[in-house]
Amino acid sequence: MTMETTRAGTTVAPASRALDVIGGDLTERSLRRYLEGIPGVDAVGLEARAAALGTRSIKTTSKAWALDTIIRLTDLTTLEGADTPGKVRSLVAKAMVPDPDDMSTPRVAAVCVYGDMVPHAVEALGSAHDDGAPGRINVAAVATAFPSGRASRSVKLSDTSDAVAAGADEIDMVIDRGAFLSGRYGQVFDEIVAVKEACKRPDGTYAHLKVILETGELNTYDNVRRASWLGILAGGDFIKTSTGKVTPAATLPVTLSMLEVVRDWHRLTGEKIGVKPAGGIRASKDAIKYLVTVAETVGEEWLQPDLFRFGASSLLNDVLLQRQKLTSGRYSGPAYVTID
Ligand SMILES: O=C[C@H](O)COP(=O)(O)O
């Protein structure tokens, strides 16, 4: 027996979604057969659909709603090697009060930070992080040797469980792109299942798991579609495009292809999976294109923080400028928003 057939016959983790959809005989081979049986993406058609959705205009009244919706759906992010507790405190202050001159401005969904910054984010949020607090802001932590994903399994799992123990509500993990692109789907699958288990808290609840595909390294839409199915089958609560550290990061066609998988999964199982485009989304007008694409592909009910997020470090600033322009009739200029 060759290594390949040995591996192909290897049982993969008995994740319940995959058992339900693929069946009880869950092996590297059956997983691969399933993923390789997913129809390919018509790239020209996908890009044409995304371009058409991106040209839809929205009325001024809808624009106010759209801007507030973008804020509510934002994971306000800082993921720099130079991050400090002070920078995280500033980020949290902005998350809680995005525009001190307009207290009607909604809060963001979450702040997204490196794992070692979680205690600082939790402390700065204070009661805004209490269970059931009105306008509660979640703490999301990137984990599993973000952004490369190149570390041992044990390091990735302790990265995850440390962040959860420190109070992270959400874990943004990266998949092993090397294993995925080599066709070792079972390895990627098992790792997601293990990370999900590391998201478990002592009380039996789980931090929400976002599975970052890093689509800019996956080369084809077929791979993006296959990785999306893999992430969902293994137990991801969200599928996320990118780390923000690789170009291209989020694009509308890639996000549309992921939304189509989420739509198909919902039709197949009735279950709703979230989507998070992240990286390079900086302008309100671009974020609005994403809102339209979500509404037209999976429906407006997805436009809530449990099912859709923007991962972005500077988008909020542009949204605040546009919001000020809409309410005051004039453009205040970038001096009126804080520069992070
Ligand atoms: O997940 C979020 C990204 O890392 C942020 O990327 P950005 O700085 O391009 O907005």
Automatic annotation (TrEMBL):
What enzyme class is recorded for this protein?
lyase
E.C. number(s) listed in UniProt? 4.1.2.4
Query: Which CDD domains does the annotation name?
Result: DeoC
Can you tell which superkingdom this protein's organism belongs to?
Bacteria
Pathway connected to this protein: Carbohydrate degradation; 2-deoxy-D-ribose 1-phosphate degradation; D-glyceraldehyde 3-phosphate and acetaldehyde from 2-deoxy-alpha-D-ribose 1-phosphate: step 2/2
| Entry keyword set | Lyase, Schiff base
| Reaction equations catalysed | 2-deoxy-D-ribose 5-phosphate = D-glyceraldehyde 3-phosphate + acetaldehyde
Keyword Lyase on this protein?
A: yes
Pfam families, alphabetized: DeoC
**Any keyword Ribosomal protein?**
no
Q: Please report which protein family the annotation says this sequence is part of.
A: Belongs to the DeoC/FbaB aldolase family. DeoC type 2 subfamily.
The name of this protein is Deoxyribose-phosphate aldolase
- Origin organism is Arthrobacter parietis
Q: Which gene encodes it?
A: deoC
